[in-house]
What does this fold into?
Amino acid sequence: MSADPPRDRGDRDRDARGRPRNARPRDALGRPLGYDAQGAEPVLDPPAGTPADSLRQAQLLLDAGRPFQAHEVLEDAWKAAPAAERELWRGLAQLAVGLTHAARGNLAGAAALISRGAGNISGYSDRPPHGVDVAGLQAWAAAASGALAAAASGALAAGGSGGEGEPPLGPPRLTLG
It folds into this structure.
């Protein structure tokens, strides 16, 4: 039996900036578990720091099969980015959360998020900041969203939902080199 959730909003777990945090443990794909369950190790706070640090940490998490945690790193970078780079970081975060949806079995949603992420990074193809491989990511996203959409259509035609598992393609390379 799970312990009761915190009731008093004044006693909520908060981060260093005073924002409420969810004390509920989560699995490796970010799904909430019971309050007394042992969850996956969270991404360390504070965020990685520089854009290069964020990209490096996110890539390590993607390579380790932890797209939900990579999304959190990229989302922190998105929120801290200067206005001129926000769509880039938003798009990168959407690519990672698309992989999260694919691993959870939501193939159609994954395809849509990956396509949306590719669209958000497209404005940076002429002069990609921080060594981000925009062209490579767009090629990966086109292949991934196509494979996911086809897999979703096949699963739905067979009467299924796609089920959990690995996305049809491996994780993208976020940077050149």
In short: The domain at 51-122+131-157 is CATH 1.10.3450 (Hyaluronidase domain-like). The longest helix spans residues 134-157. DSSP finds five helices and no strands in the chain. The two ends are 49 Å apart (CA to CA).
